[in-house]
Structure formats: structure tokens, C-alpha cells
Specification:
- The chain is built from six helices and eight strands.
- It is α+β, with helices and mostly antiparallel strands.
- The chain has one domain.
- Strand 1 and strand 2 form a beta hairpin.
């Protein structure tokens, strides 16, 4: 079985990214997608801002999509209470994708309309910090002002707004 692992990895790579995080603007539809094989790493991009006092803007929706079967789950703030990913969400993910526990890599961020790859910006660093370092990184993400170019970081600042 171990001998087949490289072949399975090659086959899986042909299918494209396993999971995507969709950024849906309520009046426009799907605007951006963050692609990654590890769904947990995608969820970290949502967890970080929420556990640090941000909330999801009423103008946006977030969905994770299992690309190999085109099955999506709408994400809500209740899925990220007390600095953790909700067990019910994990159960739903494992039902859709029994092999969901995969190693991640560097995600790819794209404009869903033009299909152009966009830079990650500061959000990449903020999502991959150790939990004890994440507060500072998330603060830096929301305080940094990059160029006028669209990046994952600039989109995150639109999607996550000051909490109540």
C-alpha cells in the first residue's frame, strides 16, 4: 500500500486543489477563491480574525467547497466559537471528505471573475502563526496598509470588520 502512495498523490494533483474558501459578495456573487488541499488551513483564515474580535461583514458570505465533488458548506461565526473550529463543522467536513486530514501547502488566491492569481499579502503570515503568536499577526494584518492592489489581505479587511 505504501508503494501506491506516490501514485495516489500524482492522481490527486491532477484533480486540482481539494478544497476552496469562497468569498461571496452578496450583491455580486462569487468574487474570490482561496484554493488549498487542507481544509483546516483554509478554516484558519476565518478563525484568526474571529477569535481576535472581528466579525463577518453583512456584505459577505464565506463558503468552503470540496472541489472534487462540488459540495459546499456556508461558514458562520458559530462555527468558530472560543478560538476553535466547531466539532459539528468538522463532522460535516469528514462526511463530505473522509480523507480531509491532508497536509497543506501554500494556498493560491484568485479573482473568480478574471481567474487571475492574486497575491496573498500579510494574511498568509497571519494564518500560519502559532496560536500564541496569532493575535499579533492578525492585528498586523488588519493594521497594515499595502498597495492599492487586491490581495487576500485587502479582501480579508473587507470581509472581517470590527466586532460588536
Amino acid at each position: 500500500m505504501a508503494a501506491l502512495r506516490p501514485l495516489r498523490s500524482l492522481w490527486d494533483a491532477r484533480k486540482g486543489f481539494r478544497w476552496s474558501l469562497y468569498f461571496v459578495k452578496k450583491d455580486e456573487g462569487l468574487r474570490y477563491a482561496l484554493h488549498e488541499n487542507s481544509v483546516v488551513l483554509l478554516l484558519e483564515y476565518v478563525l484568526g480574525p474571529l477569535e481576535n474580535g472581528k466579525q463577518l461583514s453583512s456584505d459577505w458570505e464565506l463558503h468552503i467547497n470540496f472541489n472534487w465533488q462540488h459540495k459546499a458548506i456556508k461558514l458562520e461565526e458559530r462555527h468558530f466559537q472560543n478560538g476553535a473550529i466547531d466539532r459539528n463543522l468538522i463532522t460535516e467536513i469528514s462526511t463530505i471528505d473522509p480523507g480531509w486530514k491532508v497536509t497543506g501547502g501554500k494556498p493560491v488566491f484568485v479573482d473568480a471573475i478574471t481567474r487571475k492569481s492574486l497575491p496573498l499579502g500579510w494574511s498568509y503570515e497571519a494564518a500560519f502563526q502559532r496560536p500564541e503568536d496569532r493575535l499579533g499577526s492578525v492585528r498586523q494584518l488588519f493594521e497594515s496598509r499595502e498597495s492599492d492592489e487586491v490581495t487576500l489581505a485587502t479582501v480579508m479587511r473587507q470581509v472581517f470588520v470590527e466586532g460588536k
